[in-house]
Structure formats: structure tokens, C-alpha cells
Amino acid sequence: MASEQQPMTIIKPRQGLLPRETRQQLMRLLRYGLGGLVIVAIVWTLLNTGAISTWYGQWGVVLRQALVTGVLVGSVFGLVAMGLTLIFGVLHIINFAHGALLTVGMYITFTLFESFNVDPYLSVFVTIPALFILGIIIQRLIIHPARNAPGHNQLLLTLGLALFIENALLVGFTATPRFIRLSYARDEFSLGPITLDFPLRVFGTTVTLEKLAAFIFALLLTGVLYFILQRTDLGKAIRATAQDKEGAALVGIDIDRISMITFGIGTACVGAAAALVLPFLQVDPVAGNAFNITAFVIVVLGGMGNVLGALIGGLIIGLTQELWVVLPVVLPFPFPSSTKLLSVFIVFVLVLFFRPQGILGKK
Amino acid sequence: MLTIDHLVAGYGDVEILHGISLEVNAGEIVALIGANGAGKTTTLKTISGLIHARSGSITFEGQPIHDWPSHRIVAAGVIQVAEGRKLFPQLSVLENLELGAFVKPAKHNRQKNLVRIFEMFPRLAERKSQMAGTLSGGEQQMLAVGRALMSQPRILMLDEPSLGLAPMIVADIFNVVTEINKNDGTTILIVEQNAVQTLTLADRGYVLENGEIALSGTGDELLQDDRIRTAYLGL
Ligand SMILES: Nc1ncnc2c1ncn2[C@@H]1O[C@H](COP(=O)(O)OP(=O)(O)O)[C@@H](O)[C@H]1O
Ligand SMILES: [Mg+2]
Known about the structure:
Strand order of the largest sheet of chain A: 1-2
Bound molecules: adenosine-5'-diphosphate, magnesium ion
Oligomer: heterodimer
Radius of gyration of chain A: 22 Å
Radius of gyration of chain B: 17 Å
Mean pLDDT of chain B: 93
Order of helices and strands of chain A: HHHHHEEEEHHHHHHH
Distance between the termini of chain B: 34 Å
Largest sheet of chain B: 6 strands, mixed
Number of strands of chain B: 10
Structural class of chain A: mainly alpha
Order of helices and strands of chain B: EEEHEEHEHHHHHEHEHEEHH
Structural class of chain B: alpha/beta
Number of helices of chain A: 12
């Protein structure tokens, strides 16, 4: 059985820069990316021809602004959806309290800012651990005892939890919308040779400090989460548990502990997102609802349980929403104006029809 | 080493094991044979703590383990190659093996054990960065055995390792099992439906019928037994 001529390379196992699974997903993305480039080229040509050129001259800025805002905000959607999809992957529940927990994070950020003057980008160091612990408590007290209940009961349980949280916040903070505004949002920052004068002007579009910061932090945290999942023992245990619970138990992974920690990490994602969005949104007790629905659609769009899919899905939904609301303005024919959420539902229906396994999901 | 005493277990309202008793001594290869649905898998699942014993006891090296959570049982060295393999299909071969060394004592010797398993199964070394789900059935079974060995079993339990595999691969896997039993002194409890090969290999065997131990004896005794010959060997 044993063979003598085994090459020494097996002693130091190398798996390349990225695991195979990720590489395959990236290849798929590359294909989408190339497709996207072709579309961009066609659009570009069209934009330079005749009547379209005139139209684009008039509305180009609006469209570009929608694209920029869509990508910036979409990254935060991605972060929220990653939390939701991670929880789904391991615990097989859709946590309908995800949005309400986001609201909790926003109120924490608000309170820290109002009462203690804590900068929202610093308050992530509070909201992330706070929501992680809150998630763990919720999982222990509410989700875990119901782990063997039928799926729809667990769903109702998280809906009930959402209602409870909303009402508790209503009692604590009233329904009055609260917001925070950054004193330095319109300042100039010099980073060595470059000076950034906020809001930035890029190709005629406006990039605010709040949205740019949200984008950068969201991508950073997404990267951290991805690293944890791919490279740490904890991350591998989480992925193993998501793929085969019994198999995980049989290699000595404590499934209950992993479920608890995963739920904690998932809610920590909304803790981070909450602090990132508050500077450009406002919070009331139901502020997280729209995020909840959006995140759910993104999870389906990205492939249930697929973390990378959630990030891409977030960007797509961000773009879709922003483009959708400018359509009534920029289209040369009458188009009814409607809420951003309607576009999310349309995407949802389209995905269910044409790619129910999600963009990165396999059949 | 492993003593099962009047074990009762089942699923929901259904009782499957009606008080079975069996014993595996250190260094032995013990076979548990029986027809489809007899309760062999249920027995192994209960030993591993995936199902809870309703009554009776399971003792491993003097400690009652039937109340322990499965991860603690694994850490104690009671390792199972499950029916259906229970691999992580979207993790690489290497990641699957590394996860075999998830528990403390095994984690320590991870690299050393990895080298050894790649020597036992060169096919796994060739495919180490391939996703487990894309392996052939035989390779998956090798990986399942390899992953279990990464856990440094004190007792290795195999649930129908030959199921659906070509005879050559079955022989390979049985060879590895005998080899680690001889060289490392790893105790083996092997579950099989197909009895000849298993009983030839085993020191002793038990026959499970409808959740009860119907017969037991040395491998040779069972191979000679008329009831076994008609019921399980088709002779
Ligand atoms: N998860 C389960 N829920 C309910 N009954 C089960 C389950 N798994 C197995 N059984 C039943 O338990 C009995 C024994 O099954 P099993 O232990 O898998 O037998 P074997 O491994 O000997 O073929 C069978 O009647 C089977 O239908
Ligand atoms: Mg079985």
C-alpha cells in the first residue's frame, strides 16, 4: 500500500493563493465580468450615437450618480446579507429579526454619539461585539431550544422576536426619527500629496464622505469575515458544519457551539452595518425592516448560504435600487415612480423564475 | 475497551435497539453483521453520541460515555467512518483531512499524520486540492477513512465501508484497516452487511437481528455456523 516514491511536496501542502472553491467562483465572476464589459462597450457605443447621445448628455450625470451611489450602498447591503446567509447556511433558518437587530445597532450608535460623542466609525468597536453577544444570547435562549421544531415555527419565532425588538425600541426611543450628522463630512483631508475635499466630485457625480466611508469599511469587514471563514480553524469548522452536520460532529466539532458562534457572527455583521449607515440615514424603531427584506432577496440572489454571492448580490441590489428610482426622471417616456423596494421585489421574482439557485449557486 | 450493556435507543417514538450488549477488547477487530435495517448504523450512531441512549450504558476505557456530547466522544478517541461518508463536499481533500484533526490531541500531530495518510492513499495526495464532492466513490471512501485516521482513533468504527465500491478498492480499504490494527494497535469495530470478507478479517463477530444480538463468536465460529451460512452467506 505505502509507496516509497512519494514526492516531498506533500509534506508542505500548498493549495495556491485561494481555495479551489473560491477560484471556481471567481472564474464564474470573471465570466459575468466579461459579459458586463461587452454590455458596457455596447452601451458606450449607443451613448455616442444620435438621439441617445443627446439624451445621455442631458441625463448622464444622474445615471452615473445612481451607479456610484448604488455600488457604495450596495456594499453595506452585502455585509448585512452575508450575516443572514451565514446564519442560514449553518442553522438553516432565515432570521427575520436580522433587520430589527440592525435597528438595535443603529440606536447603539446613535446613543454613543449623542451621549458620549463617540464617532460612528469608532462605535463599530462597540456595536460589533455588542451585537455578537446579543446574537449569542438570542441563539441560546430562543433559537436553540426550537432547533428541532418545524421550519415555519422557527420562522415565526424570529418574526416574533423582530416585533418584540421593534416594540421595545418604540418604548425606549419613541417613534421620532433620530439621526446623527458628522461635523467633518464637508472637510478637506490631506493624505500626503493628495487632498480630498468632501464631498468628492468624480465624473460629475458626488461622493459623500459618509457613503465612501461606509463602502470602505464594509469591504474591509467583508474581507475580514471572508478570511476568518476561509483560513481559520473556526471558519473551517463553520463551513464544515454548514456542509454536513453529522460529518462535523464526527470530527469532533461542537455543533451547538458553532451554531451559537455563527449566529453571533451573523448578527455582528448588522452591528457593523448599523454604525456605517447611520451617518447618512436616520433611525426609527422599524428602520431595519427595509434592510431585512433587501437582505433576504440578496441571500436568494447570491445563492442561499453563499457568502461571496451575498456580497455580489448586495452590489447588484444596490445598483438596481438606485437606477430604479431615477428611471421616471431619465426615461424619455412616462414611467411611474415607485419605491426602491419594488425593484427589489422585481429582482426577487426574476431570480425565482430564471435562477432559483442564485447567481453563484449550483443547480 | 468498549462495553455496551443492554443499550436501548431509537428515533422519536420508535425503538430500534432493544437492549443490545457487546464488547470490544483493546487491539481486536470486531465485526457487527446483520441484514439491512437490523440497527447496525443506529448502534454506531449511539456510540458516537449522535443519538442518545434511552437506557443501558456505553463504557469506553472505564468511562460511561453515553451521556457525553459527540465532540467529547471523538476527543476521547472513538472515531467513526460513517455510512454515506459524511464528507464536506465543498471543501478540498486537504481541508477535509485537516478537519479530521480538529480535536486537540490529533491537532498536535496533524502534519505527521497527513504525510502518513498520503502514503497510505497516494490518490488523495494527487487530489488534495480537489473538492471532496468531485471525487469518485472509492476516493471518497479513502478520504473518509483518511479523515478518521487523522483523528488518531483509539477505536475506529467503520459503517459498511465496502458499500457500492469495486472489489479492488474494498480490498485496499480492508488492507489499510488491518494494517493500522497491526501496526498501531488501533481497535476496530467494523459493520458490514456482506459477511464473508469481514468475518475472515475479524477476531470476533456479533450478529444483529431486528435490534437484538442474535449470535456472537469468533470470526471462524460464525463462518462455520449453519444459521449464518444460510442467512448471510447464501451458502
Ligand atoms: N433517522 C431515522 N428515523 C427513523 N427511523 C430510522 C432512522 N434511521 C434509521 N431508521 C430505522 O431504524 C432501523 C434500523 O436502521 P439502521 O440502523 O440504519 O439499520 P442498518 O444500518 O442495520 O441497515 C430501520 O428500520 C430504519 O428504517
Ligand atoms: Mg446501516
